[in-house]
Design brief:
The protein contains two helices and 16 strands. The chain is mainly beta. It has one domain: Porin (Beta Barrel). Strand 14 and strand 15 form a beta hairpin. It comes from Allochromatium vinosum (strain ATCC 17899 / DSM 180 / NBRC 103801 / NCIMB 10441 / D).
């Protein structure tokens, strides 16, 4: 992605949407196609704003098979402070499976594209496991166009081959159709096996959501990066979101 340019909501959101589509497929037949549209007051991905703290309109299309296989695409406007890129297009393949009623897993291959940007695309493979209300996983960046960019030589680029992202979340269903999510993650940036310690950071967040039936789901969210560095914006981010699935 960028030196700061991609979508956690995207990656995490894609996995959630894929799992939801898979459940629908199980109920209605071997194949399922679903769509989603949403709006956020600030597009936050893994603790970082992707829109310069401005709003975003987002949407996606997903396919799922009862075997657990899923595929989809997702798009959002972005703003990293320059003339380009102006939008992000994500493509993913996934597979969901269950060990028992309490333990499940997800495998995902995601490509983050910025068609009107330069040296910004990257791809990662991820794996996660969910036990009841706890989900934990890791994502590995195996391709990044920034590998060939001049910024890498100056230690200015993130999201290149070798980066690792560790994450965990706690998700609870509350009364009155409310949902509570606590999340955290740590980014370990590398290049040619060498750590970019100045770029590493941790982040945490919390979301409270409520389903409004056919009107979609609304959420109130808080995110913040934890890093004693001038590389990242450490200000707390409070934002609202809306998501409607079809």
């Amino acid at each position: 992605m960028k030196t700061q340019s991609i979508s956690a909501l995207a990656a995490a959101g894609l996995l959630v949407m894929g799992a939801s589509a898979s459940q629908t497929a199980l109920a209605e037949g071997p194949h399922s196609v679903s769509a989603n549209i949403g709006a956020v007051s600030n597009y936050i991905w893994r603790g970082q704003t992707q829109t310069g703290d401005q709003p975003a309109i987002q949407g996606g299309l997903d396919y799922a098979h009862e075997s657990g296989f899923s595929a989809g695409t997702w798009v959002s406007n972005v703003d990293f402070g320059g003339d380009e890129p102006n939008y992000e297009l994500d493509l993913y393949l996934g597979f969901d499976g269950s060990i028992n009623d309490d333990l499940s897993y997800n495998l995902a291959l995601t490509y983050y594209a910025y068609p009107d940007g330069e040296d910004a695309d990257f791809a990662e493979i991820g794996a996660s496991a969910t036990y009841k209300w706890l989900t934990a996983g890791v994502a590995y960046t195996f391709h990044g166009q920034a590998d060939d960019a001049k910024g890498v030589m100056n230690n200015e680029a993130n999201y290149i081959e070798g980066d690792l992202y560790y994450h965990a979340s706690l998700d609870f269903e509350l009364p009155f159709d409310l949902g509570l999510s606590l999340r955290g993650g740590y980014y370990d940036f590398r290049y040619n096996g060498v750590k970019h310690e100045a770029r590493d950071y941790a982040h945490g967040g919390i979301s409270i959501s409520r389903s409004a039936g056919e009107f979609g789901t609304f959420s109130l969210n808080y995110d913040q990066i934890e890093r004693d560095s001038d590389v990242y914006d450490e200000d707390a981010k409070v934002w609202v979101g809306w998501l409607k699935e079809f």
